[in-house]
């Protein structure tokens, strides 16, 4: 029996009896190198593309980009496919490195957008609190600034607020996702706090405003809404 998993702790989730019966040996496959990814792309490109439709350097560029990310062959293949789609939409007969760069930006935008869409409701409120600080000419804010806006938004949406400590955890999660940048700043005897700023492009953040939980948020007639402006 052969089992394949991306979770290196998969066996630990099994019952002891199941692990005992399976026995066997674990093999860990390292990420693909740029050269290996290039070989994979070349073999696929020979099937998918007519001769002369790929500009020189396109395959090696796709391979190097994917190798820098995590060595995932799916990333390399998706990048080449999206670049070809871009060239086709533009009416170009040759896929160029410029098409690959455009595809890379498109894929990264889609990834961040999807990350924002799938945030938990509380994380979305925290992110909205950060954007409200930016709109109030406070682009580099503290955890306290975010939490103050967060409590007001929870009040407007009639949502029970989390503790500041839990909100700080959610800020760290947004930082790990690359949606914001959060660095610890020391104030000497006054203690330390996180200094926070948006990292995702404005176009990505605008997706948050289309979320159903913020429907008519800007136009609420509630007197409490004025606290946000």
UniProtKB/TrEMBL annotation:
InterPro entries recorded: Cdc6_C, Cdc6_lid, ORC1/CDC6, Orc1/Cdc6_arc, P-loop_NTPase, WH-like_DNA-bd_sf, WH_DNA-bd_sf
Single GO molecular function: ATP binding
Native organism: bioreactor metagenome
NCBIfam families for this protein: orc1/cdc6 family replication initiation protein (TIGR02928)
Pfam (any one): WHD_Cdc6
PANTHER family, alphabetized: CELL DIVISION CONTROL PROTEIN 6 HOMOLOG, CELL DIVISION CONTROL PROTEIN 6-RELATED
UniProt record similarity statement: Belongs to the CDC6/cdc18 family.
A GO biological-process term: DNA replication
Keywords: ATP-binding, DNA replication, Nucleotide-binding
SMART domains linked: Cdc6_C (SM01074)
Record has Coiled coil as a keyword: no
Protein name: Cdc6 C-terminal domain-containing protein
Stretches assigned to the Cdc6 C-terminal domain: 127-207
